[in-house]
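Forgive a beginner's question, but might I ask you for the amino acids of a protein and the C-alpha cells describing how it folds?
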Amino acid sequence: MAKIKVMLCEPQAKPRIDEIDGDRDAVAELLTGTFCLLDLGDGLGVVFDGDGNKKVKDLNRVIDGAPMFGLCIFCRHDGEGNLLSLNPAEWAEMEKLLA
C-alpha cells in the first residue's frame, strides 16, 4: 500500500506530521488495536483504537462525544475506509486545531 502523510497525535504530546503505510492492517498495528474511523466531514477523519477504552491506554481526546485512547491519526478518507494524505493547508489547520 502507498505511504500517506497524516497528523499523528499521541496522548500528552504535540501533534506531528508523519508518513505511514495507508493499509488498514498496518494502521491497526500502529494503533495497537482495532481500526476505527470517525468521519469529521469534508473527507477528513480521525482513526483510533475502537477498543482503547478496554485497555490500559491514556485518554487522548474526545471528539464528537467519542473518547479516543492512545494514538490518534488525522487524515483524509474516501468514504469507503481507505485512508488518504492530508495536504499542506490541512496540516496547518490541524496543527492550529490540535494545539
Notes: The mean pLDDT is 89. The beta strands are 3-9, 16-21, 35-41, 44-49, 59-63, 66-69, 72-77, 83-84.
